[in-house]
Amino acid sequence: MPAPSLAEQDIRCSFCSKPKTDVAKMIAGAGVHICNECVGLCAEILAAQTVETPEISYTESMTVEQILEFLPRIAEVSAQVEDNLRVWVQRARDRGATWARIGAALGMTRQSAWERFSGEE
């Protein structure tokens, strides 16, 4: 089965999890996506930060409960990246790439690539 087109993929923002249908623009990265709304928020944060202000990781101020609430979002992004990787592997296969070349690109054996991505048992 050929890889799904971008229009067919369930693409969500890796930061806020909004689907592509709920935002004006979606920017693709290596296995991740960011919507125009999150880009805007990032721009605001960067514009407000001065040279003298050190970067402070917001995770340091999170409580255990906040971290536990955050875990499912991280798992969702991980699943999205894995799904995206499967699509890209299928695109490579659609264009004639061998399992050996795909495995080499991913730092695994041909057999491991086939087992992980072929969908066959």
TrEMBL record:
SUPFAM superfamilies: Glucocorticoid receptor-like (DNA-binding domain) (SSF57716). Keywords: Chaperone, Metal-binding, Zinc. GO terms for molecular function: protein dimerization activity; unfolded protein binding; zinc ion binding. It holds the Pfam family zf-C4_ClpX. Zn(2+) binds at C13, C16, C35, C38. InterPro entries: Znf_CLPX-like (IPR059188), Znf_CppX_C4 (IPR010603), Znf_CppX_C4_sf (IPR038366). The keyword Acetylation does not apply. GO terms for biological process: protein folding. Residues 1-54 form the ClpX-type ZB domain. The keyword Phosphoprotein does not apply. Belongs to the ClpX chaperone family. This is ClpX-type ZB domain-containing protein.
